[in-house]
Amino acid sequence: MLGLFLLRARISDIPLYVTVSLTTAAMWLSSVRGGVVHIGDLSIYYSSAVFFSALLVILMVAYVQEGPGAGRMMLSMILGSSVLVNGFIAMGISYLPGPMAEQLAATYDVSLVNLLGSIFVLFIDFSILTITYGLLQRSGSGSPLYLRILAVLGLVQVLDGSLFLLIADFGEPDLLMMLIGMAASRLLLTLVSSPFVYVSLQLDRRISGRHEEGQLPLFGLFSLEDIKYSRLGKELKLQADQLRENEMQFRDLIESLHGVTWELDLASLQFTYMGPQIEKMTGFAPELWTGFDFWKERIHPDDRERAAEFCRQQTSMGRDHIFDYRILRADGAVIWIKDNVVVVMKDGKAVKLRGILLDITEQKAAQQKLVQSEQRYRTIVEFAVEALVILDTETFRFAHANHKAEQLFRLNRDKLMQVGPLELSPEFQPDGRPSLEKGREYVIAAMHGSPQEFEWIHLDSTGREITCEVRLVQIPGQDKPLLRGSLLDITERKAAEKELAESRYREQELAFRFRLAADSARLGIWDFDLLANRLIWDQRMHELYQVPPDKFEGSFEAWADCLHPDDLEASKIKVDQALMTDDNAEMSFRIVLPDQSIRYIYSIARILRDATGRPYRMIGLNRDVTEEQLAEAELRRAREMQFKAGEIANVGGWELDLITQSLVWSPQTKRIHEVTDEFEPRLESAINFYAPEHRQLISDAVQHGIETGEPWDLELDLITAKGRRIRVRAVGQTDYVDGKPVRLWGAFQDITERVSAEQERLHLQQQVLHAQKLESLGVLSGGIAHDFNNLLTSILGNAELAVDEVGDNPGARESIEEIQLAAQRAASLSRQMLAYSGKGRFVIEQVNINEFIEEMANLLEVSINKKAVMEYQLSAEIPLVMADPTQIRQVIMNLITNASEALENRSGFIQLRTGTLDITSSAELLEEAGSSLHGVDGVTPGCYAFFEVRDSGCGMDDETVARIFDPFFTTKFTGRGLGLAAVLGIVRGHSGAIHIRTAPGEGTAIRVLLPECRSSRVGQNDSRITANGSWVGSGLVLLADDDELVLTVGKRMLGNFGFEVVTATDGLLALEEFRRRSDDFVLAMLDLTMPNLGGDEALRELRKIRPDLKILLCSGYDEMEVSHEVSNQPGVSFVQKPYLANDLRNAIRQLLESGRQEALVRGTATEE
Asked: Which of 77, 931, 1073, 1158 is most buried, judged by most C-beta within 10 A?
């Protein structure tokens, strides 16, 4: 042994005193009993009798010669020499039989064990099983006396300044890498300054001195290569190697997982392990993940406190937990993490956290898309125009219903889910079939894959019948048989259709009556197109002129050829004068029939003019007045005869002597006055027979005749002695003698019947004129509105484009916005004209009556009598109403105007008041208002907003109140009697009522009640794609319109949308342009009213060339002008002028994208 140490000293240049000391220590140690200590894979027996004394001597010598550091070095050498000596002893014991080995081991005490326990020796070994355990168990020494480190990261946790000695197995490659590596060496130098001893069985891997990189003192003292392992040692070595291999495989498996495994020590809040995948996931290397604070700093600021606090709470309660949060990657990107955490408990206390981090960014994105998709679908369903339901065919109950369905049936969703469609249906449908039987047929057919469309009568919760257009479609792929149903409330449409049918019937009846009246009055109707020189006669005209239809050329010249030559020039002059100055024409002329007979014609006409005032059409009546003319001629002759008869026989005549003031009546005159033959008339009493309003008239006529000698011929009202009012014709003249008036004489004629007949004729004539007037105004207003809308399209379109082009110029932008506002109001007037002409509809929206009145205040105040005082009492608590703003303005203006006229240019007040009225029932209103309530049929109980116009004017009696809403009834000399009739129609159309309070001399108060708005829906526009100014299309568009202004602005708009545009000014040119490049066009935009070939005709021709072409129709008229055949074609849409750029963009987008949806539906149907 001494030689071995000498050899070792030469090789290692160890001082001689060291070698001698070690040899002496080894000899002492080998000669006495000792304890067991674990070094590497060996079990060493240390003698305890003299170990402590020898150790102190050696350390003192080393300290004297070499300083404090040598003392630690000598301790390491002593222990190393003990390892060599006692190693052979341990190996020898291991080869002995079990009982013998146990007896030998029992002879040693544990003094060294106690010594090492007090100075804290750290043993490092990665092997799971070693010989040490067996030897310790045999020796009966009890539990190990050291900390056994089995993982690299575990070393860091136990290093501190209390360590005295570190002993490790040099044969562990991981340990070698850890201790020699840069980071580990620095860490060891920082934490400990104790000597570090390697024990190895390989001489060539011996390490001594200091490691230059880490400056770590390392000592390799012994090489035991020549020592042979025992059988037990070899087996344990193989087991240790296998365990290390298994450990490496397990580590590889963990680190190959998709997630990142980690472990955190709760005492130090430091990570003891972080999987290498963390760098790929977050961009931060594993060694940077030092502890809890680094992890927290990586969490997104919005999630940081929530995630950290959640983890603390769950850990404090010892609960395993899973939570999601966002991590900020090293490159700044944000990823979603799902953290699965396991809490490791020891003695009821959480000591560690272990977990797996999973990147769920893509999953979160998919979930977000799914949520957004569901939200979009839910929004579409909830805000759909139609009521949408899902029907469970097993229970025949609703499984789902949208908000519109709740409104339709007036049930909340919970109650609606408790019933089905049959409970909300009458017992029988209009065709007489039971609802149960008929409904089941539709459901069965739909469940067999055949979509059903039909009309159905439903009942809401109040029992009110609702006419619905129903569609049933099977929902495939469900756990139970379900049907999707859509219900569109067409009650109003059906009522409108019924009203339209009744209106048409009334029109036909009126036309029939008019024709009957025209035939009875022998009236002929004609229509003359001034621009085309085309004259159209009805059959009665042909009969009047005795010209067959096939012989009539239908022109102005053809009519002129029928006139009497003496009347031709005068008639032409009257026509020309009327065309230049008047809207009405009236004249009489003679015509020459083919048999050369002469007839007298009376003609009246209405002249229609365009926006520039140029006449383009005349509509009129002809009446044969030959008999009347002959009768008038005969009457003139009769008058002459009557005058002569009066001179001779005083028949129906009278005579007044101006000298004596005596008055004489003939017997016929007395009969006219209904007095007896004995009646003696007097001048002062005779005047009283005339109606009071005509007395001055006859007096003036007589006085004028006396003064001038001119005869008079008057038609006056006479009140007979019996009180009967008759119409008489009074004629008279003056006789002169020597230039002085001496006598008046004349005659009376009772013309009551003739006047009545004439009045009847005039009344009929006025009715005809009125009907023609209304028709002409309708045609005129519709045409004006159409052309006006074309102009507004250009104005609004260019103004909208100009807004985008003026940039940040506030003045220009404000001016353009004023133009847009004025054009929008003009568009509202245009819609009103279209509605009047029967070619439009009104737009209903939420209206605040107070705001309307405040907006109209200036206009109202300048519209009333200057002596009138305008007062306002506007209630602050007034609900919104659903109304047409233009109609409400008209109602207010009409009522204010009537109130002003009721003041009759006198001083007074006009009060405009608003408020709220709760109505329990229509009966309640009737009881309160009596007969002065109008429009109450449509009033339902509820809350009503009202406005009231009250004046201090003349008031009205009951007879007048009963007739004020009759069409054409008026109390004004210049009135037409349509204002209040229109007011009543508007109020009824809004489901409102009118209440009137008045009395003669006490003024009038008219209150208009309108129901409050019960729905959040504003307007009645169709549901369309939400405005999206960023949408851009592509492709070639054909734009056809006969208005150059519309073409210009339309081309610019389409260009801004990303399209190329080809324009055409009529349908034929559009067709020619399309034929040249039919396959290149993605859309055709056609005006409905174009010359040569209209929009609907052009559509049919284009579809013949390319059936799949998308076509957008536009017109100044409403969509109702589009024919049913055209509007129902797929791929055809409509936009009304004037339109804004965003409206046009949405219409085009919806039309183009509808094709893809239809293709998808057809593809699904084909697969099924």
From this structure: 77
